[in-house]
Write a structure and sequence with these properties.
This protein has 22 helices and 14 strands.
Length: about 625
């Protein structure tokens, strides 16, 4: 909202001039930078005393649009409403005359009598008065000024007919609190780790086709196939040896040599490429050792032209951690459940150094197996092929080789992969989620007062529609932490909390300016659906907007001042409604109302013109040269 209020009520001439000067001042910076709309609230009995303030405002050349509300009855015994020269008339600033802030109930007709307006105890025209709360809305301010330009003397008595609906800002706060409870619900999910973040998927390690590891495996397989061919030639029954059968022991020994080379290379890699526990990366020498042994990683296989240039980080939204969490949170995981799953993932991705797994080598490939293969008997054992292969140790050798390769791939994924997810990263992201959840919970508690007057059905319905946007806020927090990692978990928590507070505040301001269905910047191209109100609310709004304008309303007038109102003139109604109801009220008879971003959701502002000659404009001592001649007296 851009409407500024200048209250001159109760001020002397000097005080009123000083208040106007302070507001209009452009040098000291004490006043606003822009004065697009100015609402002046003055006392009817002091208008003459304040006459010089209005030319002062006009001559400042700072105010784009001006509207005046004058409060109180006319001077005793006078039937005139004396106005400074800049107000009223056929060219002056429109004036709304509120002779009694508490008003009356009155039907527009000469013989109609004033009735007490039930439930209203206001005695002053302050910022909490329904009329002022309505006029500070940009859309209503502009419409009132536009309508009153067609009035002969630009002066009218305002009346109000208000629907019993909620304030849009309060509705948004209540609905967002509903969505927050959903996002922060601990839930009862199993808390399984994120499968795509575990080393076997995230690491991307594999054997290079022509690397030493693959060659050793190939040699073992080749020897195994040769033995199988020879055994198959014997009929598999331990028959008489034929020419060439004496090569079986040699091929078994070759298989043992290949397995030995494979075992030794795996042991060397795990010993020399060991990195102490922590976030440290492989040294260049270690990286070369791993690469030269025939291990490669998917991240290194990306064409060079597609890789990030030196010093350029991978966008946060493309990181494995972000993609895994985005799928889970958009799929319905709450913040606590996502945090539980991150903790489970941390336990399985923690690096502890490749040297720690070397003891498994002897278990997977015992020295006794190596010796068995090296000492293959010259005479082939009797029996079927499967039994012979087992007795020669070939089945055990093949299984040991596969187990060694599975071990080195597992270690490579967890310890050496450039794309592996680290536990430190997961700790920071989990802390960022905790900080975000803390800020959301604080907002929800703070919105409890606003929710007290909001219908539960509307808050629940709108809360469902805001849920996808709230999830995008959470993902925005994750992306921010990944893009600029914090030093540790506590710092990540604090930073995420502070960022979330800023995002929530800016979102509320965005709604205030553009309506609750307007998407904040962090939501991207998300489509917001289902933000329309429920039918029972629409019915209340529609009833208020279609209420006959000349029927009994709350007129802000004193009974004794009804004679100053022109009951025969056309009565104009400015209908207004919250943008929350715009879709549901499309095609409303009488044309669209003014759609507002805040304030009372729906109703009518009735403008009853004053009788000819009642409003009289006179100039003060600060009359601009020639202005009086140009204005209607």
């Amino acid at each position: 909202m851009t409407v500024e209020i200048l209250s001159l009520s109760g001020l002397s001439a000097a005080e009123a001039g000083a208040a106007a000067t302070a507001l209009l001042d452009i040098d000291s910076g004490s006043g606003p930078d822009r004065l697009e709309r100015l609402l002046v609230v003055d006392d009817t009995g002091r208008l003459g005393e304040h006459a010089d303030v209005y030319p002062q405002i006009e001559n400042s050349n700072r105010v784009e649009k001006l509207l005046c509300v004058t409060v109180g009855s006319r001077a005793d015994g006078s039937w005139k409403l004396g106005l400074p020269g800049n107000l009223g008339g056929n060219q002056g600033t429109p004036v709304l005359w509120v002779s009694r802030p508490a008003g009356i109930d009155w039907r527009v007709a000469k013989a109609a009598k004033a009735n007490r307006h039930a439930g209203v105890t206001v005695t002053a025209m302050d910022r909490q008065h329904p009329l002022i709360k309505l006029l500070v809305l940009d859309e209503v301010f502009d419409k009132v000024q536009e309508v009153m330009e067609g009035f002969p003397h630009r002066a009218a008595s305002p009346g109000l007919w208000l629907a019993g609906a909620d304030d849009e800002a309060a509705t948004f706060a209540g609905a967002l609190a509903v969505a927050i409870r959903r996002v922060c619900d601990p839930g009862s999910g199993p808390g399984d780790p994120f499968r795509d973040l575990l080393p076997d998927r995230a690491g991307g390690a594999r054997l290079a086709e022509n690397g030493p590891l693959a060659r050793h495996l190939g040699r073992l397989g080749e020897s195994d196939r040769e033995v199988a061919r020879m055994l198959d030639g014997k009929g598999g029954l331990g028959g008489m040896l034929r020419r060439g059968d004496g090569d079986i022991p040699r091929h078994v020994a070759r298989a043992g040599g290949a397995l030995t080379s494979l075992r030794d290379l795996v042991d060397q890699l795990m010993r020399e490429a060991h990195v102490p526990v922590g976030p440290a990366e492989l040294e260049p020498r270690q990286r070369s050792l791993v690469r030269n042994a025939g291990l490669e990683f998917e991240a290194e296989m990306v064409p060079r032209m597609l890789r990030p240039t030196a010093g350029t980080a991978v966008p946060a939204e493309e990181r494995l951690t972000y993609r895994a969490l985005a799928g889970a949170i958009r799929g319905g995981d709450s913040i606590p459940l996502a945090g539980k799953r991150l903790m489970a993932t941390e336990q399985q991705v923690a690096r502890h150094g490749s040297d720690k797994d070397r003891s498994r080598i002897a278990q997977l490939c015992p020295q006794a197996l190596i010796e068995m293969l090296a000492a293959a008997p010259r005479k082939t054992p009797r029996g079927d092929i499967d039994k012979v292969r087992h007795e020669l140790g070939l089945d055990q050798a093949k299984a040991a080789a596969q187990a060694l390769l599975a071990l080195i791939i597992d270690v490579a994924n967890r310890e050496w992969s450039p794309s592996a997810v680290t536990s430190a990263e997961l700790v920071r992201v989990r802390a960022a989620l905790d900080g975000t959840g803390k800020a959301l919970a604080e907002y929800a508690r703070g919105a409890s007062g606003a929710r007290s007057g909001v219908r539960a059905a509307r808050a629940a319905r709108l809360g469902d529609s805001l849920l996808p946007v709230l999830r995008e806020l959470v993902l925005h927090q994750i992306a921010a932490e990944l893009a600029a990692p914090s030093a540790n978990g506590p710092e990540a928590l604090r930073s995420a909390h502070d960022r979330a507070v800023v995002l929530l505040t800016s979102w509320a301001a965005h709604v205030q300016a553009h309506g609750v269905t307007a998407l904040p910047p962090f939501a991207g191209d998300l489509a917001l659906v289902g933000a329309h109100p429920i039918e029972e609310d629409v019915a209340t709004v529609r009833e208020a907007l279609l209420y006959p304008v000349r029927e009994e309303m709350w007129q802000l007038c004193a009974p004794g001042d009804l004679s100053a109102l022109d009951a025969d003139a056309d009565v104009v109604s400015v209908r207004f409604a919250s943008r929350l109801t715009a879709r549901a009220l499309a095609g409303l008879p009488g044309g669209e109302p003014v759609w507002t971003s805040s304030g009372t959701v729906a109703g009518q502002l009735r403008l009853v013109q004053l009788r000819a000659g009642v409003a009289e404009s006179t100039w003060g001592t600060a009359d601009p040269a020639g202005a009086q001649a140009a204005m209607e007296p």
